[in-house]
Automatic annotation (TrEMBL):
Keywords: ATP-binding, Cytoplasm, Kinase, Nucleotide-binding, Transferase. It is found in: Cytoplasm. SUPFAM superfamilies: Actin-like ATPase domain. Its EC number is 2.7.2.7. One of its GO terms (cellular component) is cytoplasm. One of its GO terms (molecular function) is butyrate kinase activity. This is Probable butyrate kinase. It catalyses: butanoate + ATP = butanoyl phosphate + ADP. It is an enzyme of class 2 (transferase). InterPro entries: Aliphatic_acid_kin_short-chain, Aliphatic_acid_kinase_CS, ATPase_NBD, Butyrate_kin. HAMAP family: Butyrate_kinase. Belongs to the acetokinase family.
């Protein structure tokens, strides 16, 4: 039976939207948002409404009526840590996504999905949100009990790509040891041990390589001194970590393609920043051999920046001694969400209730 599924996926530098008929993509669009465009929004709600409007315009353009939809699937945001799976968007989830101190575009996905689903009189669900937590006990111990490591990463895409790779080599995800690298607006590098992401850098405001719009690991003492210097507001400090950090801080743009194109032809500033990014990503990959006990079946590189062959070749050169490197440019997130929507509609899975999850 045919099911119409709307998929909504806001990222830090893009809004992706698609309509599927079952597992088949009918229409899709990726809207890229420049640093300049995003800097215009002062309030959270302004950007949420802007992104929602883009989804509605897309549906109009494609002549898809809300009453045609059978389910709306969205990327999940920074709610409390939860296990992998499909969750119904309900008041509990929306409440936590509104109140969360960690700001990220994925926090708006469930609300946009919920509003559109209500108008179409269907369910809205999320799947494998960015807070899927499968960390090992040892990985949680950060160095201070007040600040344990938390799991914030591209869970949906990392797992989707890992499963696609497993299928391709006729193995099960649960029997593999993989390092998955997502190179997007944020960068996450995860150690997948037999189907669980037992370690990963906290890809929002915690640790790991810098990214198009994030600073990654910084010298924390210096950050604290700057925060208390009186020179910056809390908001300004946070935006140095997320939004205006990384490539944006060095070069004024979150467009990694533009930077890569300049680096490739030897433009000095762009080359220096790109080489540092390659160095940091390669170091993070090497560090993830530890949770996998040095037995790595493959390294999978994905995300928008993975379209850049110059970049992925340079990373590969530095880590190829560990295991085979496979590139999955872009993401499998839209398809993974559609797949989960289809499973709900076919009664192959029942969406969990967020409020009743114990962790
Ligand atoms: N063809 C390409 N080559 C290199 N980089 C690209 C390409 N397409 C997109 N990118 C970069 O990928 C980054 C966004 O990755 P993506 O995974 O789409 O991000 P988001 O986190 O917003 O979902 C941007 O910096 C963008 O410039
Ligand atoms: C918050 C972790 C996921 C993330 O960084 O997503 P984007 O790269 O889409 O911003």
């Amino acid at each position: 039976m045919s099911h119409k599924i709307l998929v909504i996926n806001p990222g830090s530098t893009s809004t992706k939207v698609a309509v599927y008929d079952g597992e088949n993509e009918l229409y899709t669009q990726t809207l890229r948002h420049s640093t300049e465009e995003l800097n215009k929004f002062q309030e959270e709600d302004e950007q949420l409404n802007f992104r929602k409007q883009k989804v509605i315009e897309f549906l109009k353009e494609k002549s898809v009526a809300l009453s045609d939809l059978d389910i709306v699937m969205a990327r999940g945001g920074l709610s409390k840590p939860i296990e992998s799976g499909v969750y119904l968007v309900d008041e509990d989830l929306l409440h936590d996504l509104k109140e969360t101190p960690r700001k990220h575009a994925s926090n708006w996905a469930a609300k946009i999905a919920f509003d559109i689903a209500q108008e179409g009189n269907v369910q809205a669900c999320i799947a494998d949100p960015v807070v899927v937590d499968e960390l090992s006990d040892v990985a949680r111990i950060s160095g201070h009990p007040k600040f344990p490591k938390v799991s914030v990463f591209h869970a949906l895409n990392q797992k989707a790509v890992a499963r696609s790779y497993a299928k391709k080599i006729n193995k099960s995800y649960d029997e593999l040891r993989l390092i998955v690298v997502h190179l997007g607006g944020g960068i996450s590098v995860g150690a997948h041990l037999l189907g669980k992401v037992v370690d990963v850098n906290q890809a929002l405001d915690g640790s790991g390589p810098f990214s198009p719009e994030r600073s990654g690991s910084l010298p924390v003492g210096d950050v604290i001194r700057a925060a208390f210097s009186g020179a910056y507001t809390q908001e300004e400090m946070i935006s140095m970590l997320v939004g205006k950090g990384g490539m944006t801080a060095y070069l004024g743009t979150n467009d990694a393609k533009e930077i890569e194109d300049k680096a490739k032809v030897g433009e000095e500033e762009e080359l220096a920043v790109m080489e540092a990014l390659i160095y940091q990503v390669a170091k993070e990959i090497c560090s993830m051999t530890v949770p996998l006990e040095n037995k790595v079946d493959a390294i999978l590189i994905t995300g928008g920046m993975a379209y850049g062959k110059w970049l992925t070749d340079k990373i590969t050169e530095k880590v190829a001694h560990i295991a085979d490197v496979e590139i999955f440019p872009g993401e499998d997130e839209m398809w993974a969400l559609a797949l989960n929507g289809n499973r709900v509609l076919n009664n192959e899975t029942t969406p969990k209730r967020y409020g009743s999850t114990e962790f």
